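Attaching the record inline, Q. Sequence:
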Amino acid sequence: MPGCNREFMDDYLQNKKILWTVTHPTINIYGYPVELYAQHVEDQPHPGQGVYSISKNKWLQAPENLGLDFAHDQILQDKVDFYKNMIDSLIDQKSDNDSIKGLRAKLQTLRSDSIAQEGEFAMGNLIFKELRNQGYLDKINDYQRTNMDKGLSL
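Structure, as predicted:
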């Protein structure tokens, strides 16, 4: 979009990604959920990350299987469990939307800051992805949506 600043465009694309993810939650490739990611043409992809061009219909950078084993990373699992317990507690305590928004913002910041500093396999991004894969992000989104619907209902 000519005349748009980069921060505006990044926010716009992030919102479109969220909308697409919410409206197409079951699309996967060989059992792995599809996650869209758009980046500026001048930005370099993270090492090992696949980059597919829709317009050219080809891989610009083929994804690599790095053979990483996160299932047995106890530090990662402990941090994921911490956030799972936090989400369950907020829901059990019938927390207000401000508390839920705060947690969601914390998780998004955890993810984006860690990616910016350490790349795709940074701890914060792995925590976020594991919470998503285990359905905890959907759980908190559903809770927040239900709360909002109740507040808007008569």
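The chain has two domains: 6-61, 70-152. The chain has five helices and four strands.

More tomorrow.
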